[in-house]
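We emphasize that the prediction below concerns an isolated chain of 409 residues; any contacts that depend on oligomerization or on bound cofactors are therefore not represented. The input was used exactly as deposited, without trimming of termini.
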Amino acid sequence: MNHVICYALLFVILTSCITPTFAAQLDVRLNPAKDDAVVNIRYQRTVFIEYENGGDIADILRNQEFTTSFNANPNSPGVVSLINKLNQTLSEDGSVTRIKHLDIEYDAHLTGRNLNTSIDYKINLIATIENFVIREYSDNSPALVDISWRGLTTDEPIVINTPEFGDVEINMPISFLKNNVVDVYNLLSNTTAIQLLSEPIMNADGIRNQPLTNWHFLFDPTGINVDAATFGLADEISGFVVSSFTMGESSIREGRQVEKVFENIINLDEEYAIRSIESADSGNVFVVGFAAVDKIESGEVFGVSPRSPEGYATTSTGGFPVMIIYGMAGMAGLGAIAILLFSNRQLKKEVGQGQQGIDPSRLRARSTSSDAGGYQTVRGEAYIADENNDDSDKSVANNKGSMPKEWKP
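Result of the prediction step, given as a token string:
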């Protein structure tokens, strides 16, 4: 019992020290032989405003529905400013990588219901990065690929000018309420809920702060002929390996990954619950070549070679040798052979034993008696051929439609 109390206290202390971070999903394919790469990073969040007891906010939001959705590129006012802010964050993180082009897909949707209102926020950044290759590959040394740029985060307001909606601030959840439901914004602006609703959506700290040594590592040692189109590469890269690093799974390395839920209770004319929910952070980084995690002064990098080191027989995090995999497959094969041999021996033991009941060769068939109800049935019965008893007594499968002798008039 004392141990349980200690663990509970430790959990409370640790969780009270955690600074709220929000989710992002990263996907990128890097080729050290190319000058640029396309990064896709998505930020998603859902905010619930709950009003089980009704109230002024409930009266305003019930049955309401609003959507703000648009695409933007560097020609849209405000996008270049976002590129500069993200590049500033990368510089502060010690990264030499820079964003040279950025497309934005933004969608926010409000749905008002009887007991709550939900607002779904989705921001998808499609960024083209450059300068991520710190050192090119040579016969004497692997290429060095910068990966410390992966924390694409900004905590500043981002205003994009759109033809459909005018100026739209996309990074602070409260902005959507301010633009679409100003009465609710005014009610919440003087409460503690404003802090939760002002947490920036574009936050990838969870991806940046998870060391690459904790990411799950896999590589394909047979080459990427089949996947060449995915990377936009020609056949000359045949024989190269592809390394993949993934995060976001629950494991001993990363810990338990769960959705992030933050809640704030406010009291106005009624009690309201403001809840923010996001999925766990996740990331997928694919590298053409054999990539090993390393560190330089500015941050984490990949050391990338066209092929895996000689004698390297690992395809997953943890140094799991191929020979063990082959050994496990061999053991499974031996187990299958043992089962077959055992089954064969059992069959041989049963040879000659045959059926344990009546020998089918002793059975004969005949029609059911016509005196059963005064008509001839189409069903029959079987009898044992070598018995001398009365036929009516040696049936083993009487026709149920026949009348027994003792019931006959």
